[in-house]
Amino acid sequence: MNMLQKLTLFFCLLIAIPIYAQRNIKLTSPDGNIVFAFKLTDNLPVYQVTYKGKVLIKDSELSMSFKEGGSFGTNLKRPEARFDEVDETYDLIVGKTKTARDRHNEVIIPLIERGGAERQLHLVIRAFDDGLAFRYEFPKQKNWSSYTLTDEGSSFNVVGNPLVRALLWDNYNNTHEGFYQKLSVSEIPADTLMDMPALFEFSDNVYMAITEANLRDYAGMYLTKRDGILKSQLSPLQGQTTEKVKAQLPHRTPWRVMMISDRIGELLESNILTSLNDPSPVTDWSWLKPGKTSFHWWNGDIVPDTIFPPGVNFETNKYYIDFCARNHIEYHSVIGYGGFAWYKSDAAGYGVVGPHTDVTQTVPSLNMQQVCDYAKEKGVDIHVWVHWKAIYPDLEKAFTQFEKWGVKGMMVDFLERDDQEMVNIQEEILNVAAKHKLFIQFHGAYKPTGLHRTYPNEFTREGTHNYEFNKWSELPVSPDHDLDIAFTRLLAGAADYHLGGFRAVPEAKFKTQYTRPLMIGTRCHMLAMYVVLESYLNMVADYPEAYEGQPGFEFLQKVPTAWDETHVPNAEIDKFVTMARRKGAAWYVGTINNTEARTIQVPLNFLPEGTFKATLYTDGADVSSDPNDVNIELKTVTNEDVITIPLTAGGGQVMHLIKN
């Protein structure tokens, strides 16, 4: 090679180095622990995720496939990326905290096709100290005005063979209610739908949860394993299998979220999902009141035997309204009785809607205005149950009548889908409900995605296999399953759970009872569930006689449902979790245990300076034969104290701390 050739080669290499460098981008979390690395290969865009130097996600491809114009991902060019840093706080109307910090680094990576219509897509990545997220944005552009998406090719090429905790399904239309499976990535059956959130436990005690945030005008995402790699799988529009999303540009996808930490409690404390949602466009939420509610369907519609005939009538509702008024329970649920709804319907039972169903009219035996007026006199608000198909034909008509009666909110049930149409239906329900000052409690619904920042009137969602199954299932909901919920489903947000069963029995004595259902796990375990679970409308679902005069009920009378601050002072996955939550100056600390007895230490270093009067509710001495046995102790504590908690099998413990 002569000198001229050498100089030419050197010059080409010199030019190539910055060009190649431009194809690779790194985004680091503010604390430096999480790194997102992006490169544009000749085939597809690829990313990698590391945590404290350990690769969690190796080369994972990103692409989109459209009905018109084919796939997007090959033959791309990348103009200059735009970086930004954000550190701000925002207030939540309802949530696990009153004020959240949004601290992240962001990069927007434009991707443009080199030929054809030169379609353009932006990949947006945000790195937080407790995770990262990415989404696709479709800016307004000259040659592309709308799309029909057939596949989103987001992949998660997980390194090693971590243990996964997730719900697995064989079809998209489901209640999202099931027992969590625990299996390694290699054991996941191919083409099975993995529900969100899914928790991955790596060998060196690093945890990563995959879920989504800000699900709006898009299809819900699952993961499915193909060729050993986990890939996104979107819920298709009803009646076919290929079309997933239809949209006009500009448009954007939900965030694909990876929550990451080597402390499992940090994932439970995280506000990453609300930080990835939009602020509420509504400025006045002063009318919104989180609280607890009766729900007599769960207990079997129990009323006293001799006072009045039970049914869909004023007397039955008055009985529960009076109970709520006596015990500082903010809401009473008007449901129906004996499997039939409170509203006019020609359908047989709760689960279906007939051609002449009308929620603006009650059954002849009920006067809704009388019920609402009486409840208002007693300082109790009314909350109704409805089938979603009973309200959706005309939300404005239905919600106008609810507001006129004085109803404050509703449980919307039997949704059981997460395709784009259903996602939009649920947002429409929230939007119209907010205009009529109504809150929403979704049942038979997919997981939350942090949307309660945008719509604080979304109080809670079910999407959990919960204590309602104790009414009919031979396999009761166990303390182990409660922990599965805490360490998986709770990562996504509020979880409605039919709380409040006060008839605990040893597991050997459990039997199915549709009326007056039985529980396993101790009374203190049940009390602690009100602190451990996040829900802004927790149920007190048993009947009055089951509660009044019972030890521990005074804790349920006091415990809030929305919080100013949340900490996890101690947790060990699958074994136990302690949650500490503050409302005003008072702290509530709840611990639930699995089916193995143990003693744990709970440091109180989350408390501010000063002394606190602590009321401790602990499993009693006779709890093995009577799981409802509760020991109550008073003591004075400070933030330097460490509380020793003996936990029985299936047990729990709660503390109520008030500053002296």
Automatic annotation (TrEMBL):
Domain spans labelled Glycosyl-hydrolase 97 N-terminal: 27-279
GO molecular function: carbohydrate binding
Cofactor names: Ca(2+)
Annotated Glycosyl-hydrolase 97 catalytic domain residues: 297-463
Keyword tags: Calcium
Residue stretches making up the Glycosyl-hydrolase 97 C-terminal oligomerisation domain: 562-657
Taxonomy, superkingdom: Bacteria
The protein's assembly and partners: Monomer.
Protein name, per record: Alpha-glucosidase
Gene source species: Parapedobacter pyrenivorans
